[in-house]
Amino acid sequence: MPSRSESIELSERELREIAGYAAGCARRVLPLYEQRRPADTRPREAIAAADAFASGGRRTAALRQHAWAAFRAAREAAAAEPAAADAARAASHAAGAAFLHPLADAHQVKHILGAAAHAVRAEELACADGPFSAGPVLDRAREEAPEAVTAVLGRLPAAPPGGGRVGELMRLLDSALRG
Predict the structure, then answer these.
(1) Which DSSP string corresponds to 59-74?
(2) pTM (two decimals)
(3) For 97-155, what is each residue's pLDDT tens digit?
(4) CA–CA distance, 126 with 71 (Å, rounded to integer)
(5) Is the backbone of residue 162 left (phi > 0), alpha (psi -120 to 50) or beta?
(6) Angstrom distances, CA of residue 31 to CA of 83, 119, 123, 126, 144
(7) Could you tell me which of 11, 115, 116, 143 has the fewest CB atoms within 10 Å of its CB?
(8) What's the CA gap between 49 and 45, in Å, rounded?
(9) How far apart are CA 160 and CA 153, in angstroms?
């Protein structure tokens, strides 16, 4: 495994596939946000910006601004609406996936799998009153991952420790994709 300071190979095609994957993960849980905050379009706009990049658009400051706007939406929803907050975080990570750095740093795994992990957590929180198993949702995220996700993960150290439940979900997905 390369050291943290080493660069990894990362093609534009891989970066676009990763962003498209992240956008798909976030899109699945977007209704959890929009049901609670229908007037707030920031997470939807972040997903649309990630989709535009994945489809050949440019990686611009506006894309980064959409990621930060969805992050602010998540922070605003966090106390009262935790499932909505994680859905917005998934959208933020989707737009942020375009900014994956070609560095052999475990924290770069968050750019690849952050949207998926937050999406699983959003679904988990939305089912707080009923049975929920993260396994099938993680399996779906694993099955839908394009080849670029597993290829780039293979060039990086494993997902870092910490991060609470979302970090745990990210490590489970990371391990499954590498396995």
Answers:
(1) --HHHHHHHHHHHHHH
(2) 0.94
(3) 999 999 999 999 999 999 999 999 999 999 876 667 778 888 899 999 999 999 999 99
(4) 19
(5) left
(6) 10, 11, 11, 11, 20
(7) 143
(8) 6
(9) 12
